[in-house]
Amino acid sequence: MRSSKGSAVAVALAAGIGVAAVPAQADARSATDGPVTITATGHHNGQVRIDVTESGENYLLIDPTRPGTRCATPNGRTVSIPKDRPPGPGSETFTACVDIMYGAQRQWDMLRDWLGRSGPPGNGRNAPAVYDPSGRGPIWGGYVMFGRMPTGGAPATTLDLVGHQFGHLVYQSTPGGTGSGNESGGLFEGASDIFGVLTDHYADHPQNRPNYLIGDSPSLMGDRPLRYMYNPSLLGDPNCYSSAIPSTEVHAAAGPLNHWFYLLAEGANPGGGKPSSPVCGGDPAALTGIGIRQAGRIFMGALQRKTAQWSYAKTRVASVAAAIDLFGPGSAECAITKAAWRAVSVQEQPGEASCAGSTPSPAPAGP
Ligand SMILES: [Zn+2]
């Protein structure tokens, strides 16, 4: 997240994904508790269906089927909704946690159905979310932190931002960790934006149509989002890779990765109401996307190949390897992966696989 141009909002995602330090009482359930799906109203998405745990006169915001997924206060207590008092305006922690549960559940299902991954950490056990309006966060570790936007004070719990925050957990949990410095920090933030829009598109909420804007809710930033993936420069972030990236603020340094992902998924001129996306240096002259789901598979495959101290160059090489693994060396997906990198000024790297692989020969004709 970012509060305003150039100033980073700390993402208090604690190192590691263990949940051992969570207060033990927080997850306590009795034998009579059961899974139930309720309709609830969050802060940003309007009415949503969320899976919760019924317990006496309350609905505990504990996901009954996606292990570890719950929404807690900073003291570790799971937020519960009284059955006779549905959350509405004024009950900020309730409505923010409804947004968080909705986003975490849609993301879990997206990871399973589109990317073949078992929860953000990949081990079938999610980290708990904490909503803390003060922004300080709890003293225990292993949580995914949510708070208010510094500007305006609305909960930073739009669907894409929930996908973004849990997306950090995906990145942390793939090989190589998070690295240090602003270039790898930019890739860390851009990866989370990618998981945010993947979640947005998977959910396809009728009142919140999927797009490639991050943090686009009127109550967050007014008429502008936090980031434009198809054209980061609309907010002054770089569209194209350059030697300045290692000294660029991390959310801005995500610009070329976000831009690459849009070009890979949608192309430069997708039409159909989707925005056009500029191509750095005018090369390639035309670029057709492969769809967000396939783009997501390639990006996930790249993350599986991540090594310590990740860079744009390494991400390019890894994504080409992933595209070949998924679609074959002679595939259009391989060529478009490379073309989209060229379109954000990340050029071919030494040791990068070729897309000019052999194509299967047609089956013999005849009887
Ligand atoms: Zn972030």
TrEMBL record:
One of the GO BP terms on file: proteolysis
Signal peptide start and end residues: 1-26
Domain Peptidase M4 C-terminal, first and last residues per copy: 182-346
PANTHER family, A to Z: BACILLOLYSIN
Hydrolase keyword on record: yes
Highest classification ranks of the organism: Bacteria, Bacillati, Actinomycetota, Actinomycetes, Streptosporangiales
CDD domains attached to this UniProt entry: M4_TLP
Protein name: Uncharacterized protein
GO molecular function: metal ion binding; metalloendopeptidase activity
Classification via InterPro entries: Peptidase_M4/M1_CTD_sf (IPR027268), Peptidase_M4_C_domain (IPR001570), Peptidase_M4_domain (IPR013856), Zinc_Metalloprotease_M4 (IPR050728)
Occurrences of domain Peptidase M4 (ranges): 39-170
Organism: Spongiactinospora gelatinilytica
Membrane-crossing segments per the record: none
Record key words, sorted: Hydrolase, Metal-binding, Metalloprotease, Protease, Signal, Zinc
